[in-house]
Amino acid sequence: PYPELYNWDGCAQFVSDYLTMEPLSSPITPPSYLPSPTTTLKYQRGNCFGFSVLLCSLLIGAGYDAYCVNGYATREICMMDETREVCPLLEKSKKVLKEPVKEKVKKYAVKPPRDLRSKFELQQVAKKEADIEAAQKKKQKEEEERVMEAEKPKPDPLYGLRVHAWVLVLSGKREVPESFFIDPFTAHSYSTTDDHFLGIESIWNHKNYWVNVQDCWNGCKDLTFDLGDPVRWEFMLLGTDKPLLLLPEEEEEELADEDLDDFDKEEEEKGFDMPSSWVDLIQISRKEFETRCPQGKKVIQYKNAKLEKWAPYLNSNGMVKRLTIYEDPECFRVLEVKDWFENREDMMNMRQLNKKTEVTTEYFSPGHIQGLKAHTYKTMEPETERTMEFYSETRVDGLQKRVENAKEMTEYFEGRSDFLHYRHTMFGRRIKRAQILLINTESNARPIVQIKEQFHRNPEKPADEDVAERIFMILEGRIMLTYHCKDDYITASKKEFIKQKDVDNKGNKIIMTSDMCISYQVGSCVKNKKLLHLYEMMLKLMEAEKQLKHQVWESETEVLEILKIREEEAAASKLTVSMYDTERNEKSKQQRETMERLMQEERQRQVEQDLDYLAPFLIQMGSTEKMSKWQALRLKEDCLNDFKHRLIDKANLIQARFEKETQELQKKQQWYQQNQLSMTLEDEDAYLMYCSDAMFCIRILEIRLNRHKEMAPQKYIELEEKLCKDPRLAEYLKFNV
Question: Per the database record, which ranges form the Dynein regulatory complex subunit 7 C-terminal domain (predicted)?
Fold first, then answer.
């Protein structure tokens, strides 16, 4: 039921994580016995042969052509020593370098200016640079050789003799293009010509066993894995599914001589097939599959790195993986720490901390309350250097990234209807710096010096009317507009508005003048716009400036809100549980337990209904093997009278409880009338709560009493009919019905 086990890498990773490695008792001899995969799973530990058998079983079940291999390998492979290997999480993907496309020289292109520099001087400079580069390469090569020599493992006295078991996957099935090895200890795949594997003695699967006849003087590089070739692989059982290769001479003899078939049949009769397996089916529970590592934790040491793994929900903060990167091979000086998380309520899936720069980067999956994608910061204090990235498709404003520090804030947008894609705000120093509150107001916000916005081209507008950039210089009282370039033009139209006070020193209203707008219009034939139009444009820009100030304040407030939310989320570290996870979901677990309890009560009620209702009265009468008519009538009357008394007692009990609750409510109401003026709000709330509960209880008792009065006669009649139909009384009561 686990899709992760459908592919070879998922199977190998599960076996590597789930089991604990045990070295062979003797490094140069195979073990004396081979554990079954179910035994290995049960004890959750094993040697390389136990690992290989379990992994091979999973791979064969997933449809791969897999085999267990008994051979020889290097010390690092046999001892699961990965201290000289680079952590797979740090391996960078190789980037494919594209060759630069040479531009075709146009026939009528403008010739470049003549190079008047001295060729001799250029040659000398190039020669000098080449010498410097060669010296740097030589120094780098020497340093690499020195490091490789220092990291080179010590000579192994058992080189070529260490026994190891691993898995071979042949090409063909599951669209495997090329055969390869899998080391079950580390779940890494290797080529069949890798230097880590030094030879093969035999291989086997669930159908047959093959012995290697080829020479392994060059390791596994020259081996051929055609198991149908009896010259290279000697099989033990005749029931092999690999076709035998036939030499041309043998093929001619087979076609010419019919007696050869009879001889083969006789030989087949003397052979034996693989016996049926006595091993139980591999079963992995959901809890075991999720826990993976023994006791839920596993530590792997790599080159200058340490990888720690945890089972989901084992850590209260949801951490499932931690990679610690060190500067030195001794792993003393920490360089960087990467943490991976799962099932967190705040949707954080990764956190990266650089110990050198003290910069923390948090990554989030889609679904955060603020649409947060990544958060890079040094400290959680407001108005400090930080970068926030967002899922722009989940936000109304289309914000993609926000970069902020104490002096400026830059925002990047995408997919907006107004084509805005960039906004840069510069702040000034506060006159009197007060304490920064998490509840920000426009009065204590940072003073804004300048706001710059940039827009993409709007194809529905002419280029000289479509603003590409606008700058609001608030302290200087100027607004600068730059329009998009028109086709076939290299310059763009510009306008600069100079704001002035509405009223001069004498109290007269200032009228728009030509000095308040400096414009440059591309194209000499285009006439300048009238002052009225420019005045209206300036009023709109001044209104836009007010709105921009408010938007900047909203951005600052949002930053403070996100910081507050992140602090609360980090302190709480709540984890989410799927509704289908019945083990961890408390609500689902309680609901299931309630349903089981109700079903148990229903079964108990059914059992009680099936009890013999005449048993108490039959015991009183003594021997009932021969019952007279008078005894049957008496038995019926006793049973009906007893049931009648029980109905009356139940009605009296309900009536008594009803009267008791009513009297207590009346006493409480009288007490309230006497002490109404001296009561506190808490006393009044308690009185109202008591009245509500009492009225509810009285109403329920009244409904039960009325229902009992209605159902009692029907139950009496049903019991009487049941008694008349009872086989023990029917023959005596058939004339009295």
Answer: 625-732
Helical axes 8-18 vs 48-61, angle rounded to 10°:
150
Average pLDDT over residues 429-452: 69
* 421 within 8 A of 454, measured Cβ to Cβ: yes
Q: Is 433 exposed, middle or buried (0-12, 13-18, 19+ CB in 10 A)?
A: exposed
pLDDT digits (tens, 9 = 90+) for 319-335: 999 999 998 888 889 99
Residue type, 285: S
> How many Cβ atoms are within 10 Å of 165's Cβ, its own excluded?
27
Identify which of 516, 466, 472, 464 has the alpha carbon closest to the alpha carbon of residue 493. 464
By DSSP bridging, strand 408-413 and strand 399-404 are antiparallel
Residue 652 phi/psi, 5-degree rounding, is -65, -40
- pLDDT of 96 above 70: no
Can you give the three-state secondary structure of 327-389, one letter per residue?
A: CCCCCCCEEEEEEEECCECCCEEEEEEECCCCEEEEEECCCCCCCEEEEEECCCCCCCCEEEE
Within 8 A by CB and 6+ apart from 222, the residues are 214, 215
C-alpha 113/C-alpha 103 separation (Å) is 19
Q: What percent of the chain has pLDDT over 70?
A: 86
Mean pLDDT check: name the lowest of 76-90, 94-108, 212-226, 415-429: 94-108
Q: Tokens 């947060």: give the residue.
A: 372
Q: What are phi and psi of 339, to 5 degrees?
A: -120, 140
- Helix ranges (H only) for 511-614 are 531-572, 586-609
Residue partners of 110: CB distance under 8 A and separation at least 6: none
